[in-house]
Structures are given as C-alpha cells and as structure tokens.
Design brief:
By secondary structure, the chain is α/β, with parallel strands linked by helices. It has 2 domains: 8-176, VC0802-like (2-Layer Sandwich); 198-239 and 271-395, 3-Layer(aba) Sandwich (Rossmann fold), CATH 3.40.50.150. It has 11 helices and 15 strands. It has helices spanning 8-20, 37-46, 64-73, 92-100, 128-147, 198-207, 225-234, 256-268, 285-298, 336-353, 366-369; strands at residues 26-31, 51-53, 58-62, 79-88, 113-121, 152-153, 160-167, 170-176, 216-218, 278-282, 304-308, 322-325, 358-363, 378-384, 387-395.
Length: 403
C-alpha cells in the first residue's frame, strides 16, 4: 500500500485555517512606543498570557478571545497584530508570488475592502510604498482569479488591514486586529496644541510608585490626559469601552457572543465612585475647558477637580500623593527663554508646597530641565511622538528648600 503524499501548501492552509478559529491558541504581537515595552509586557502577564519581549514589540500566546481582551483592556499597547507568515524574498517576483500564495479570503470577502502598509529596513526593497503596492497587487490578483472580483482599497477604514515588514530579505506579514490605534480611546473630543498620547500617559503612570488609592496632581494639565487616564485606572475602566469599533470585528472569524460577554464583564467591573480626587490646573482657561469636556466624555469628571491658575499659584490640595506632568519643551509651544521661568516655578512649588510627595516629569528638553535645580532619582528614556524624552522621578524631601 502506497503512502499518502500530503501537499505542503495544503498543510500551510490547514494550519492557517486552524489559527483563525476563535478558541484556538495563536501568537499575537502587541506594539507600543519606545520606552514602554517593559510596562506592556507586565500588563500582558497580568492578563495571564505567556509573553516574549522583542525589539519589535511583545508577543503573547492567546486564543482570539484573548486578542479581543487585550484590545479592550490594554492601556499601553497601540496595536495588536496577528502574524500570518514569514518568508524570504530576494526580488520583486518572489515578494509577489509569496504574497499571492496567502489566502486572505479566510478573513474577508472579495466585495469588501483592504489596505496594505509597508515597512522596510536594511533591505534592497528601499521603498515601503513599492512593497505595499506589490503586496496589494498580489492579494487582489488572487481574489480576482478565484472569484472574478477584487476587494477595493480603503486606506482609512478597511475591513482588513495588512502589514508587510521587510528586514534584510525577510518579509513578515501580519493582520491588524485593532483598527484605529488603541491610543485613541474615544473620549478626546477636543485637543490642545501638543496633546499627550493616551497610551503614553497611561504607560508613564503605570511606571510610577502610585498606589491607585491616592491623589494625582498635574499642575500643567493641558487637555487632561494624565488625569483622565489615572482616573480610568483607579476606577478599573477598560480603555476600549468608548471606542466605536475594532479591526477584529470586521474579520470573518469574529465571534460576537464572546465579544459581548467581554463588554458585559468590563462594564460590571467598573468602580463607580472613588474616595480621593485627581487635581489639575493650567493657566490656559481653554485647556481647563477641554480637560473638563474630555473627562465628561470619559465618564470620570466626578473624580477630577480643575482650577485655572499659573504654576506659581498652585497650592497643595492634600497631605500626600503623586505629581505627574508634561511641561512644554519649546518644540511646539512657547518660547524656551520664557519656559525657563516655568521650570523654575515648578521647582519652587514642589520644594515649598509638596514636601514629602513624589514628582514625575516628562522632559523633552534637557536644557529646560536643568532649571528645576533638582536631582532626579530615575531617568527613563521614552518617545513622545518624534521627540526623544526622559521620564524623571523626583522625591521631594521634607528638608529640601529652594536654591
């Protein structure tokens, strides 16, 4: 009796199909900003997942229900990807043929929409737009050959978003499960001139010694991101509850019953009222109004108290707590010479009115930070968009006095 010959392509298709099942374990990749990888890994471990931190992000093992949970609950991740495959491509033809061998019909129908984004590093494929174009051509050509029609391209709100990353000659293909970046929670109805990303604010808060039971003060609150994210953490509010949609909801393997149960579970776990407050101030009245509006949309306005005042007018609201703030760097807001006085005012207020507190400052300009005249206990490099920053910790000793 002759042995059965199994086609390798059929094996790949079968394994790929298995990984689309909602209750099957798979390997996902969570992305975030530079400096937040450790916080993200700790968060994923707290969800109960096995993790692997890499230079690209943090991988975690979960079923698709776990993927839904991370998208709903992660405060630090910006995106969750499902890695589909990896192959070597020495030239354009190999890139095209390998992409064409992937059956994206498992995820969407030919009458739906897609987008393809490319990323290139240290490769003979020097143009990420060219990589994305060739990958897109391969995907739609297969649909056309198999069904007679092809998906349309939608760069803004597609049913399927595909990421193609080339490092050297290794091509990694992933499917986005998040849709719009997870940093956009849905509560920010107005922004200031230089708003802090929500995931970055939450990640920085989770880096601090804050016990989630004591006040946070932001003396230069801007649009209130630190205050709102802190209140959401304290009230155990899932950051994804306010979003309109996620990428995984548009995929063919989406399980609406599991998703509904996760939503119900998250809603039931919220803490309705806190026995402490979050305090914000800013000399810009428009910023205070924006913070109040955003806090109301986030459902945490009752936990936040706001006052319009300059930094040198700020009074300590309670006996103890944490100060955390993101003062201007002079990159987009304000003049650096004028900002030197603001940093000196921060130092004066901390040393005179917040003795015994711990302060955390996101610094994007070392020359300005020198005007604090204080020695930091910790310096953590992080990225605030394109700006390389340091997250600085200061313990304000009771014996400390202004210089």
């Amino acid at each position: 009796m002759k042995g059965i010959v199994i086609c390798p392509h059929l094996v790949i298709i079968f394994v790929f199909w298995i990984f689309t099942k909602v209750n099957s374990m798979a390997r996902f990749l969570a992305l975030t900003s530079r400096g937040l990888f450790d916080v993200l890994e700790s968060e994923l471990k707290g969800f109960g997942f096995e993790t692997e931190k890499t230079p690209d992000g943090v991988y975690f093992e979960a079923d698709w229900a776990g993927c839904y949970r991370v998208n709903l609950w992660s405060r630090v991740a910006t995106r969750v990807l499902f890695p589909v495959t990896e192959f070597t491509a020495e030239n354009t033809d190999e890139l095209y043929e390998n992409m064409k061998s992937i059956d994206f019909g498992i995820w969407i129908d030919s009458n739906q929409t897609l987008s393809v984004e490319g990323n290139v590093r240290d490769s003979r494929f020097r143009d990420k737009r060219f990589v994305a174009l060739k990958a897109k051509d391969a995907i739609v050509d297969r649909f056309r050959e198999e069904t007679g029609e092809r998906p349309s391209v939608d760069r803004y709100d597609p049913h399927l978003r595909v990421f193609v990353r080339v490092v050297n000659q290794i091509v990694s293909v992933s499917i986005d499960t998040s849709g719009e970046t997870l940093s956009k929670r849905g509560y920010r109805k107005k922004t200031g001139d230089a708003p802090l990303k929500e995931h970055l604010a939450a990640g920085l808060i989770l880096m601090t010694d804050w016990d989630k039971k004591s006040p946070i003060v932001d003396p230069m609150c801007g649009t209130g991101t630190f205050l709102i994210e802190g209140a959401m953490i304290a009230m155990n509010m899932a950051p994804g509850l306010l979003r309109k949609s996620f990428g995984f909801e548009k995929l063919k393997n989406f399980d609406s019953e599991i998703w509904s149960s996760l939503i119900d579970e998250a809603t039931a776990s919220e803490i309705e009222e806190l026995d402490f407050k979050f305090y914000g101030s800013d000399r810009n009245g428009g910023a205070i109004e924006t913070t109040a509006l955003n806090a109301r949309h986030a459902g945490v306005d009752e936990a936040i108290e706001l006052v319009k005042c300059a930094i040198d007018e700020l009074e300590c609201p309670t006996d103890s707590g944490v100060v955390i703030t993101n003062p201007p760097y002079g990159e987009r807001i304000g003049d650096k010479d004028r900002l030197k006085d603001d940093y000196k005012d921060i130092s004066y207020v901390l040393k005179n009115r917040f003795q015994g507190w711990t302060a955390y400052i996101l610094s994007g300009e070392p020359e300005l930070t020198k005007n604090l005249g204080m020695r930091s206990d910790i310096k953590i490099p992080v990225s605030n968009g394109p700006i390389n920053c340091r997250f600085l910790k200061y313990v304000v000793n009771k014996a400390e006095r202004p210089e």
